[in-house]
Amino acid sequence: MRIAIIAEIDRENEFPHEFSPIRYHHVGYWLQELSKRHEVAIVDWRDLDEGFNAKEYVIQGEQRPQIIREEKNLEDLGDVILIRQSGPMHSQKRGTEKFKFSEESYKQFLTSIKQFSRPVINDPEMLMLAISKEYLLTLEKNGLPVIPSLIVTKPISIDALKEHLIALHSCREVVVKPKLFSGYGAGVRKLSSFSNDNEFKEYFEKFNPLIAQPVLESIYVEGEFSLIFLGEQVSHAVNKITGSFLINQDFNPTYSQFEPSEEMIETARQVKKMIEQEYHCSMDGIMRFDFIKKDGIFLLNEIEMINPGLYIRDLNMYPEFLEKLEKYLVSVKEKFDSKFIEQELR
Prior knowledge:
Blueprint: E1 2-6, H1 25-34, E2 39-43, E3 53-54, E4 57-60, E5 65-68, E6 72-73, H2 74-77, E7 80-83, H3 103-113, E8 120-121, H4 124-130, H5 135-141, E9 150-152, H6 158-169, E10 174-178, E11 189-190, H7 197-207, E12 210-214, H8 218-221, E13 224-230, E14 233-241, E15 254-257, H9 262-279, E16 286-294, E17 297-304, H10 318-345
Parallel strand pairs: 1-2, 1-7, 7-8
Antiparallel strand pairs: 3-6, 4-5, 9-12, 10-11, 10-12, 13-14, 13-16, 14-15, 16-17
Helix pairs in contact: 3-4
């Protein structure tokens, strides 16, 4: 089977590691291991033209990944296309402007690849939805257990925003974050971290529109609970604790696997079903559901559909996960081939 993985290529070696020039370590490991049984290529989506021709791509060499500088069509590189790492929409301290992309350019790519003749994971329609976190309001409106969210589209004072959310949700603190996908917690801040309204106004102008949510106190002690899905199946579940309201690598989290309850899994499946019904996209892909506890109930914080961290390296479960991933990709191809044959026979 041929697998084309859409991921960032680090041509200038800004982030060197054993799998350079691939930007992310885990993608390099996937390339190394999957290449033992399949033909695998890494393609940066920014290198694709309108006809899906890539100027260059990366394959596994004898010792390490190597860039092949020749033009090749994506159709010749993959029977299955896996959109894995797209880069952040907002720059952050661990990256640079070189790795920032615009909403417009990414939407153009997703609109284009929707027309591709091979199966694409994750569904481009789903990824289009994931650019904005507004789906949380739809889930809340339909009665699903999610952390309440407020979209902020106009300048507002710190006190007015805080008082509004505290009055509605009986919380002590409010968190604000970009409505657009950012990655690595870029732009996520407590409202109390702003020294005055002018500072908050500058933040608003940079990240507008915003999402404001109450901070759930359990995040400090119990952390965040995540379900990682491969298609319809839960691959694994991980609890991440930093002692902060932010759960990312900059805060040195502790990771531990846990056995998710049927209630949590069923909530995630109800969320997937609701999104498919409301937005007419497929939720059959690789994604992460993040939950935070409130009064013993798991509330959905967000769904990571673009660049979801899977914590495979942190949990030391590379071989186990790669086996599941390979089976999933094979099943996607077989399902696609079966549908194609049925259509040909009609």
